[in-house]
Give the backbone structure.
Amino acid sequence: MDVTNDVILDLLPLYLAGEASPGTRALVDRYLREHPEIAERVRQASQDPFAALPPASPPPDLELRSLRRTMRLMKWQHRLFALAAWLTGISLIAVVSLQHGHPHIHFLMADYPAQLGACAQLGIVSWIYYFIVRYRLRTKP
């Protein structure tokens, strides 16, 4: 049976992991005795399993994509902060007046609960999304 170098290289991960069948182990052992250059690679790989792996390289446009994603998230963070602050402020509008020399604060939420309640709810949702985007932008240690 003629075994090629490619077949042995395909079997090496199983051989090195100790998961190859006895017949496969015998075949690889016989091939390694006949080919000392491959045997040397196997010996090095068994000492340092990651040395045989090719170095992983990131895609060439990874930095540009990361920068664009970060800039997009920062724009959303600023917009959501402005929207949340504005909606919160609108829902907390109050009229301050002096009655008998004492300040009296009257929140308009009491007079317009549906409209200002909707603003408050949208403000809460905006704050939630703001903090989600802020969490996604934080630096991982």
